[in-house]
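Second attempt. The first submission of Superoxide dismutase family protein had a stray character pasted in from the spreadsheet, which I only caught after the job came back as garbage. Lesson logged: always re-copy from the clean sequence file. Corrected sequence (190 aa) follows.
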Amino acid sequence: MNPALVAATAVICLAAPALAQTANQGRTALPAPPAGQALAQAGLVDAAGQTIGTAAFIQTPSGVLIQLRLDKIPPGVHGLHIHENARCQPPDFQSAGGHFNPGGRSHGLLDQGGPHAGDLPNVAASQNGQVWADILTDRVTLGTGTDSLFGGNGTALVLHATPDDYRTDPAGAAGGRVACGPIMRMTQPR
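This time the job returned cleanly.
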């Protein structure tokens, strides 16, 4: 396997069976973060405007930890990206704009000119339509500066219909946008 692909996907941890059992019972609560950390949250909706889950964003010394908990997702692998506008108007979510890319880079974790700051690893939905993933990215911040998720028009987390190929500009051939959630600040950075 390509070492870059391994590095690109190593940050995803699918939930243990016990967590999947909890999700099956309709509980999608995220663990409580340490006190005093910068936090953000996105409530994701599908094309019908129905809430399908949440993503918590926690600033850590190594980057931003994204804890994703979704339900009612088509089984299989899906592209996941941070987009440049904090607007999620169903059914197509085009209001979220393109990928968050303050550095003006090419798309793709496997592209020499990439990645966009908003490029994230693919996530897998189980046969019962659940996604439980923890993703760490050092390309964005909940603080200030050009890589902040709260500058300009804000940002949104978008789930795509098919996997990101990690190469093709502008969006990795990841298909339509099936879910979206504006990323909203919960606490101020220290």
